[in-house]
Structures are given as structure tokens and as C-alpha cells.
Design brief:
With 411 residues, the protein is of the alpha/beta class. It has 2 domains: 127 residues, Aspartate Aminotransferase, domain 1; 243 residues, Type I PLP-dependent aspartate aminotransferase-like (Major domain) (Aspartate Aminotransferase, domain 2), CATH 3.40.640.10. Helix content is 37%, strand content 18%. Helix 3 packs antiparallel against helix 10, helix 11 runs parallel beside helix 13 and helix 12 crosses helix 13. The structure holds pyridoxal-5'-phosphate (PLP). Pyridoxal-5'-phosphate binds next to helix 5. Its cofactor is pyridoxal 5'-phosphate. GO terms for molecular function: N2-acetyl-L-ornithine:2-oxoglutarate 5-aminotransferase activity. Pfam families: Aminotran_3. Its EC number is 2.6.1.11.
Length: 411
């Protein structure tokens, strides 16, 4: 065991970061900040410095940090029953599934622990669905270039970015990619061996690129014509982020299944696959499972999170605040220059500049704003859905100053 660092009450960030750097497998490129506490749209580091959190745990904290109703649900459940395995029924899991199917076109839910696992479940569902119909040669999944579906091998194989895949080849067979928003290429790639088309309604990790409505509508038609499923990866876009409960509502289509995670648990690890019949019933007992999936602790927390999203009108708020944020960014961009494009939907926004995004992110951090880079020149903003106009004003002012600083001009 590494020795020499004691982290106790009142420790500052430095020993925490040294310990982490020494003991953790170094897969993350982290900012040199140790966070200690959060409330609403703000977090504080170990030295007590406050930051406006426009990353929200990468789109996870829809209801903000430590929402009292979610804290209450979590602590109440923690004193009652944490975990049972899925060998038994529990009320929080059943009620969570009911909440989701009642407010969506989907008939059934499967719970897992992350976005990647929700995608894995979707891949298995697609393969089972084809085999159920006696089509064992139909196993291919068609996805989009620049997509991101997760780090497990199946989800990684579905991901349309070589940089994530290349170090881990060989990939799982049965995936092919087409350019995003290219309906003709999609039509050309889908055929009798296609089990499913898998798409993000807004590509998040790829740089915040919304789908063209015509492309998603074409995807629905192409899937139907070929006898394949249309599955949407709404891990990042789902549950209010884009100003609709599900992003597909913007596009006038209904997929056969969606993968969810991020916002679902309010910060506790949970993912879900929701599916419509007949596909929803093809995975049978023993064919898929997760020890932790939807355990009472996370399910109770997730249910409370969804109730807050609904009762506080956060989906409509995301829509309104998304418009407000875009307007503010537009005027900031005409003041400061250096902004090439503002992309997104609702409170999922990418700001593409002509300066390195990493420099903008660092300058913003020093000025008390958390944002992150998705691509060499694109900064992403994913504030909690409880964000208000004053916080947006503050964030956009800081971002403008950070862009100028990164450009070497007076910020
Ligand atoms: C669209 C999408 N799918 C899947 C994932 C993977 O989720 P996780 O990191 O929870 O496995 C992500 C993560 O950013 C994502 O944005």
C-alpha cells in the first residue's frame, strides 16, 4: 500500500491529488482541482473556492447537487434496504419502471449501472430480437461516425471514433458506421443483415452535433423497411436535457428502444434500456442480468430525481433556459469574436471557437466556471436543469472572458 499521505479533516487538495495520481490507474485527464461539496448549480473545492458547475457531472446532475428531496429519498432508503440482487422483487425498482413506461411510448425497462451497459443491453436485445424471428444472420448494428456509445467492448465497437477503438482491437464483429446525418449512406448500409440502427439524437461526446430531423425520420423509415430496430442512445440527451423528456420528441419519431443513464440516477449509478413490444419481451430469464442493476438504493434515488424533474417542471425549464443560454452566447460571441458556431438542443450546448478548447476550459476554471472540451476547439455546456438566468449570465460572462484569455487578448 502506498504510504506517506494522510488525508484528514481539513486537508487541502494537494495531498488528495498526489494520492490519486499515485494509486489510481491513470485513465483520466483531470483538472488539478479536488472537489469537496456541491449545492444546486455550484461546487466547492477543498480550499473553499466556489465554481459554477456547467458540466454537472457530464450531464448527470439534472436536479443539481444535493437536491433536498433526492437526499431525503436516498437517506431514507439507505436506512431501510440497500441491495437485494435481482433474485427478488423490490418496490423502488418496480415503481421506477412504472414511472418510465407511463411517461413514454415504451413498455418495459431493464436496469443496469451505466450508459455503456444500457447500450450493451440494447445490442443484445437487437441480436435476440432477430434470432427470435429465426433470422440468425441478422446481427449487424449500423451506427454513425463521430458517435460515442461507451467504453465496454460492445459499446466501444458501436462507437464511431477510431481513437477510442484502435488501442483495443480486435473489436466485436457486426458493427458498421455511416456518416452522421447522411440518410442515403444509412439507406445503403442497412439491409437483410441489419438487426438495428443505433443513433444519438444529439452527438454529445463527438462535439454536440444535433441530428437533422430529416435524417432521424429517414432512419425510422429505413429501419422499418429493412425489418430492423431503431434504437436511440439517449444516455446524454434523455430525461429533460434537450427540453423534452426524450430528445426523440423533437424529431416526430418513436424508436423501438432507448438507452438511458446519466440524469436517471441524480448522481447514483444507474442505466436503463427501455423498449417497446414486441422487442421488449425477447430477452428472457437468464439471457441478461446485472447484480446491482436497479437496486433499491439507486432506484429510490432515481425515482425521486424523476419526480423532481416532473414536479418542478424542469423539462420545460430546460427548453426555456436553453433558448436563453443560446441567446446569451450569441451576443457574447458578437462582442468577443472567436466563436465559430454555437450548436445544441436545450441545455446541451457546444461552443466552437477558433482557439484551443483546453485553454478556454482552463481559463474558465481559474475564473470559477466548470465546462469541458469535446473536440479540439469545442467547449461543452451541460448545466443542471435547475439553472436560472442569473447563473447563465454569470457563466456566459466568464466563458467570454476565458475565450479572450485563451486567444491572448485581454479577458
Ligand atoms: C451517448 C452516450 N452513450 C453512452 C455513454 C457511456 O456512458 P457511461 O460513461 O455511463 O458508460 C455516454 C457517456 O458519455 C454517452 O454520452
Amino acid at each position: 500500500m502506498p504510504e506517506g499521505t494522510t488525508i484528514g479533516e481539513g486537508s487541502t487538495g494537494q495531498p488528495i491529488m498526489e494520492l490519486a495520481d499515485r494509486c489510481l490507474i491513470p485513465v483520466y485527464r483531470r483538472q488539478r482541482v479536488a472537489l469537496a461539496r456541491g449545492q444546486g448549480c455550484r461546487v466547492w473545492d477543498t480550499e473553499g473556492r466556489a465554481y459554477l458547475d456547467f458540466i454537472a457531472g457530464i450531464g448527470v446532475l439534472a436536479v443539481g447537487h444535493c437536491h433536498p428531496r433526492v437526499v431525503h429519498a436516498l437517506t431514507r432508503q439507505a436506512g431501510q434496504l440497500w441491495h437485494t440482487s435481482n433474485l427478488f422483487y423490490t418496490e423502488p425498482q418496480a415503481r421506477l419502471a412504472e414511472w418510465l413506461v407511463r411517461r413514454s411510448p415504451f413498455d418495459r425497462a431493464f436496469f443496469c449501472n451505466s450508459g455503456a451497459e444500457a447500450v450493451e443491453a440494447a445490442i443484445k436485445l437487437a441480436r435476440r430480437w432477430a434470432r427470435e424471428r429465426g433470422e440468425s444472420g441478422r446481427f449487424e448494428i449500423v451506427t454513425a461516425e463521430r458517435s460515442f456509445h461507451g467504453r465496454t467492448l460492445g459499446a466501444l465497437s458501436a462507437t464511431g471514433q477510431r481513437k477510442y477503438q484502435e488501442p483495443f482491437e480486435p473489436l466485436v464483429p457486426g458493427f458498421r458506421t455511416v456518416p452522421f446525418n447522411d440518410a442515403a449512406a444509412l439507406a445503403g448500409a442497412v439491409g437483410p443483415s441489419t438487426a438495428a440502427i443505433l443513433l444519438e439524437p444529439v452527438q454529445g461526446e463527438g462535439g454536440v452535433y444535433p441530428a437533422d430531423p430529416a435524417f432521424l425520420r429517414a432512419a425510422r423509415e429505413i429501419a422499418d423497411r429493412a425489418g430492423a430496430l431503431l434504437i436511440l442512445d439517449e444516455v446524454q440527451t434523455g430525461l429533460g436535457r434537450t427540453g423534452r423528456l426524450f430528445a426523440f420528441e423533437h424529431f416526430g419519431i418513436v424508436p423501438d428502444a432507448v438507452a438511458l443513464a446519466k440524469a436517471l440516477g441524480g448522481g447514483t449509478p444507474i442505466g436503463a434500456l427501455l423498449a417497446r413490444e414486441p422487442a421488449a419481451s425477447v430477452l428472457q430469464a437468464g439471457q441478461h442480468a446485472s447484480t446491482f442493476g436497479g437496486n433499491p438504493l439507486v432506484a429510490a434515488t432515481a425515482l425521486a430525481t424523476l419526480q423532481v424533474i416532473e414536479e418542478e417542471g424542469l423539462v420545460g425549464r430546460a427548453d426555456a433556459m436553453g433558448r436563453y443560454l443560446s441567446g446569451k452566447l450569441q451576443s457574447m460571441s458578437s462582442r468577443t469574436g472567436h466563436v465559430r458556431q454555437i450548436r445544441g438542443l436545450g441545455l446541451m450546448v457546444g461552443v466552437e471557437t477558433d482557439v484551443p478548447a483546453a485553454a478556454v476550459v482552463e481559463a474558465a476554471l481559474r475564473r470559477g466556471l466548470l465546462v469541458n472540451a469535446v473536440g479540439p476547439t469545442t467547449v461543452r455546456m451541460l448545466p443542471p436543469l435547475v439553472v436560472g438566468p442569473a447563473e447563465i449570465d454569470e457563466a456566459v460572462d466568464i466563458l467570454g472572458a476565458a475565450i479572450l484569455e485563451a486567444a491572448g487578448e485581454k479577458g
